Amino acid sequence: MKKQTLIIASLFVLVLLFVGGSYLYKNADHSVSSEKTSALLRPYAYVLGNPNAKTTIVEFFDPACGTCKSFYPFVKNILKQNPDKLKLVLRYAPFHTDSYYVVAMIEAARLQGKYLEALEVIYKYQDKWASHGTPNIGLIWGFLPEVGIDIEKLKDDMKKPEIDALIKQDIEDTKTLGVKATPEFFVNGKPLVKFGKQELEELIASEL
Q1: Which of 16, 79, 102, 191 is the most exposed place for a label (fewest CB within 10 A)?
Q2: Where are the alpha helices (DSSP H) in the chain?
Q3: Class of 53-206 per CATH?
Q4: Could you read off the pLDDT of 139-169 as tens digits, one per residue?
Q5: Contact (Cβ atoms closer than 8 angstroms) between residue 21 and residue 162
Q6: Residue 117 has what pLDDT?
Q7: With contact defined as beta carbons under 8 Å apart, do 186 and 126 qualify?
């Protein structure tokens, strides 16, 4: 009987520790420290929404990431619902094989005023070129003209050192901020602690 009581008491203590630990973690301040703020926001990063909005969402994404593709329309819809209050800053975390070159394509398309067009067509055909383990980014060349992108100019612009420097800086910033998976979101410097669309929506709502 004493042994059974001891087991029940131990389980009760463990549950208390788990609940207490979860509460403390959830309510702790996980905000990016002031010395890392520059790694979160770079002046060259592409911005959607109101550039003067008081609430800033920073998303680190990989164009080969299926979850990033899934979140893209979701976040755009939140921006659409809050046109004056929100801005989205897009940063790169090219973790998948050859994603570095896909990011270079997006940035080179930006020089033609086709940033979002390139991103969206790359997401649109992601299941064709970004198959797991064997990506074939050569297929992307055939998709980009669909949105009016000049492929020859794009290939030349991809070689620009400023594009290479930009991508390397983003990769360095993922290391500084501890970004290890995509998409990774920060809202006004606060990371999305528990990942999920509802959790992201709640975090954004708390900062509006």
Answers
A1: 16
A2: 2-27, 37-40, 66-81, 99-110, 115-124, 126-129, 140-143, 151-157, 161-177, 197-207
A3: alpha beta
A4: 999 999 999 999 999 999 999 999 999 999 9
A5: no
A6: 97
A7: no
Measured distance CA(24)–CA(30) in Å, rounded? 11
CA distance 120 to 57: 19
pLDDT digits (tens, 9 = 90+) for 70-119: 999 999 999 999 999 999 999 999 999 899 999 999 999 999 999 999 99
Q: Is the dihedral of CA 76, 77, 79, 84 positive or negative?
A: positive
Average pLDDT over residues 43-47: 96
Max CA separation in the chain (angstroms): 81
Looking from the CA of 122 toward its CB, the CA atoms found within 13 Å total 31
pLDDT of residue 34: 74
Single out the residue of 72, 64, 71, 182 nearest to residue 129, CA to CA.
Answer: 64
For the chain, report the end-to-end CA distance as a whole number of angstroms. 55
